[in-house]
Write a structure and sequence with these properties.
The protein is built from 13 helices and six strands. The radius of gyration is 21 Å and the shape is globular. The chain folds into two domains: about 150 residues, Glutaredoxin (3-Layer(aba) Sandwich), CATH 3.40.30; about 140 residues, Serine Threonine Protein Phosphatase 5, Tetratricopeptide repeat, CATH 1.25.40. It is of the alpha/beta class. The two termini are about 30 Å apart. Helix 3 links the parallel strand 3 and strand 4. Helix 10 packs antiparallel against helix 11. A six-stranded mixed beta sheet has the order 1-6-5-3-4-2, with helices on both faces.
Amino acid sequence: MQPRNMSMSGVVDLAAVKAAQEAKAKAEQTRAENARRGGGGAVSPAGLVIDVDEAGFENDVLQRSTEVPVVIDFWAEWCEPCKQLSPLLERLAVEYNGRFVLAKIDVDANQMLMQQFGVQGIPAVFAVVAGQALPLFQGASPEPEIRQVLDQLIAVGEQRFGLTGLTVDADAEAPEAAEEPEEPAGPYDALLEAAVQALDAGDLGGAVQAYKNVLADDPGNTEATLGLAQAELLQRVQGMDPQQVRTEAAEKPADVPAQIAAADLDLVGGHVEDAFGRLVETVKRTAGEDRNAARVRLLELFEVVGADDPRVAAARSALARALF
């Protein structure tokens, strides 16, 4: 059976499943039925990581998402960053012990699913919760940031839809752990120092390229990820007329590019909460490509500030509420 048509615009309802409240009721019914059967709904640890194709998508992802959040990992054998991200996601799926299920989709074998989710590049990670699809992140992000995203996803699933996860059979054999990728060859001190020197000299293009050179070999390098986000932000605001940008943003609240430009200026000026709040509000009142553009820029600004900053955590929660 082919998956039904979908269009990604932030969060979208999938026609194959019921509305959120119906999904919540169904999840509660399933838990009650399992309780009457003496906990017969338990799954083995191996069932927390599944390979999914187009034929099994409806049952393995759409229907399963009425019981537990399903995280989708779009990957391919030839994708080097995928070889770092996929084992990490598999390990976290087992560690989270039934709070979410990981569905792995090989894009080479499942082109239709890739197109229906609007995947632009891999690795790309999405989630489906109670039949609603949500883009999470793209690329091999650092583990602490991935954990934050998963924690938010689980919280939304529980608070909005009553999805408390699956019961895992502790006596069942756990899946064989995927081998962690070897640490990439380094060191990167020289490249990182070159990027810093380029920034100090005002050579933003050179700094961006230096950070990209590090990330091409080590996608999970936290220092390079942060540095690239900062350099690209400075590059975007270079040459802007602050007064003109702020005037346009004030006069055109529905103009997404104007709001994005103003948010960039807010952040460069140290007004972190203003930048985050502006984009969260933009996400709330837009849809389609406009909403996605605002969401993506907000995630980029999170990278600039850093995942450990409490303002980022608060804004991530606000973004999740806006999307749902």
